[in-house]
Specification:
The protein is of the alpha+beta class. Helices cover about 25% and strands about 40% of the residues. The chain has two helices and four strands; from the N terminus they run E-E-E-E-H-H. A four-stranded antiparallel beta sheet has the order 1-4-3-2. Helix 1 crosses helix 2.
């Protein structure tokens, strides 16, 4: 087999594409002692940016509320550029939908925890995510 037909997978760059923090009820919200209700929304998408280069984007929105008061809202877009070539037919979508998000997720988790802590709140540690299950669920919804 020639080198040109060997599968290629490389991480070119991992970066925070967008980061937003809102604390609409500061400073009074810091005086609340109740445990907040945390809501999490997670999304993934990918796009080709050049021949054999793909950007994969993980987006998370974390909201914390106490009763009807917003404690904080964090939105993060964690992105990566991946060089992917010479994969067998049907293999690219799973790599973009499962493999790349699994690589990006620890970075996303760290950004969320860090920004929430720097905002003066206890850290929010995101639980592991099964991107394979999410990928297969999306595929079955499309069929």
């Amino acid at each position: 087999m020639s080198e040109q037909s060997q599968p290629v997978f490389a991480i070119e760059k991992i970066y925070v594409r967008d980061l937003s923090l809102e604390i609409p009820n500061a400073p009074n919200i810091f005086l609340e002692r109740e445990t907040p209700e945390i809501n999490l929304q997670l999304g993934t998408k990918s796009q080709s940016i050049d021949e054999g280069l793909y950007e994969v984007l993980l987006t998370v929105t974390v909201t914390a509320k106490i009763k009807d008061k917003m404690m904080f809202l964090v939105e993060v877009q964690q992105a990566g550029i991946f060089r992917i070539r010479n994969l067998p037919d049907g293999e690219l979508d799973p790599v973009l939908g499962i493999g790349c998000p699994n690589i990006l997720f620890p970075y996303l988790r760290e950004v969320v925890s860090d920004i929430v802590t720097r905002a003066g709140f206890p850290a929010v540690i995101l639980n592991p995510v099964n991107f394979e299950a999410i990928y297969h669920q999306k595929k079955s919804e499309m069929n």
